[in-house]
Request: fold
Amino acid sequence: MDQTLAAVIIVAVLALSAAIGVLWRQGNSSVSTEAHPDQVPERFRSPGATLTLLQISAPLCSYCGAMRGILGDIAGVESRTAHLEFDVSDATELVDRFAIRQTPTTLLVSASGDVISRLQGATPAAVVKTQVADAFTEIQRRADEYRI
Reply:
């Protein structure tokens, strides 16, 4: 076999593998905005933050580091937002209460402890930013609902 043909085949296989990996990764991410009756305990919320990006991770989780970077960047830009990360073994109360079965799982939590949104798996930064903006809209809507 010609070396050029072999190189083209190798590059094509690598490109196909990368494309499949990206599609698979996006397929393993989900967003839920279903209301949950339970509130997140205060120790899992950041004092003074309007919205806490609460990440539940595991030591061997390959996507947790990427999510840590995305969430940290967003919290660094949006002053009303904080990012907290807990290992599943340190957050068993949350794992049970919110049926967390995948890492990373990120709960977008209001200052009062309501879960506004839930991100499961490796979630693209654009999706996270949209969910954060939507969470602030929902928090404002709820505040307006209770004004006299």
Q: What stands out?
A: The chain is about 45% helix and 20% strand. The chain has one domain: 31-145.
